[in-house]
Amino acid sequence: MIHIADSSLFIIGKRIEGNIVTVPSVANEIRDERSRTILELMDVRIEPPLQSFIGEVRSKARVTKDSEELSKTDIDVIAKALEYSRNEDTILVTDDYAVQNTAIQLGIKVMPAGQKK
Hints:
The chain is α/β, with parallel strands linked by helices. The protein contains six helices and five strands. The protein has a five-stranded parallel beta sheet.
């Protein structure tokens, strides 16, 4: 199981089993010492998203009307989840509703980091 994580996972400090991947822009957002330590202790792989998946996410976000709500980092995270979901069992960990909605519309499973379902 691959978990693609946005910053909420590290800020909240939720413990999850399996491999965790995030994108460079999420790692750059994590500035407080506690969250940075959590990111490092979770042995997170940091990988940039592929451009082809970014385009696919942007197209879907326009259809779902989430494009105004999604930041560049959000789009990168969804693109990375989409990339992994094509070949592996993947879950996107986020508390952002626009990210969740766009991901679901792309067929990506989502799991909240801290919010109730």
